[in-house]
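Bit of a strange request maybe. I'm writing a small parser for structure token strings and I need a real example to test against, not something I typed by hand. Could someone generate the tokens for this chain?
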Amino acid sequence: MAEVRAYRTITRLAVLLLLVCAAGPGWAARCLHVSSYHPGYEWSDALDAALDRTLAGKCELKHFYMDTRRHPGDAWAREKAKEARALIVKFHPDVLIASDDNASRYLVAPYLRNTKLPVVFCGVNWDVAEYGYPYPNATGMVEVAPLGAMLKHLRRILPKARRGVYLTANTRTEHKDYEHFRKVFADHGIHLDANFVGSLASWEQGYLDGQTYDFMVLGNYSGIADWNRGEAEHLALARAGTLTLTNYAWMMPYAALGITKRAQEQGEWAGRTALAILGGLKPSDIPVVPNRRWDLWINPLMVKRLDVKVPDSIVIRADRYP
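Reply from user aminoacidic:
Good idea to test on real output. This should exercise your parser:
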């Protein structure tokens, strides 16, 4: 109920702020968005577009990209956090929006905790405790994978599944995701191995090795520097036999079934929350919430090559890829 009340409060204040903005053309609130990643990364692009739509005409929005997926080292991240901090001093934002883990890890936690600058975080995977959230000046939306829905569909397709493998890029976020997957699957009597890879060749070998398991979960390819969609898709279609699942929409060329998160939800919520804070609501009055929405996808070409039958009830309900 607290989450529902917070959503309603945010919506009411956002509407009020819009009316104030329309009545006063001299109004000039400033919002700074610090992204952990880079333009061109599918998740970031969708989140950014949702932020842009939500805040258009309501505050001056500036984006800063830390680019930590293509540059995963701590030294790079710390330097980009210093650049973002300098931009804060220069731009004087009224609200800061920090998307995904590294913006919180390297910028918000060390520099903005318990300051006067309101912070709205989003896209932080699973657990915010490592960054000390929530602070009096910060609130946000946690990013969680829809594991309950994934397990439900897995059980409907493979009731006797006992062994799976998580194939993904070798990044900090993917290690964090895997630990949550492993624990939840173990609670349901399923052992989930992991294969963290750094090259396309290693991913392809991992995909072939994964055919010996009951199923594969495909994590993110972002972090594999030499990724080639055409080559990966050709291999996946040619050698698919084991059921493949993913919670990333952009992994659907290589997976049979997708139970996917929506980056748009994170961006829209962060934008509405920023407007609510600009309208007078304190961050400490807004509870931290998880994402709620997910989509069901099916790749018909991949399904045709499987050694298992996907129930018609799933096929009918799911959106088709492509």
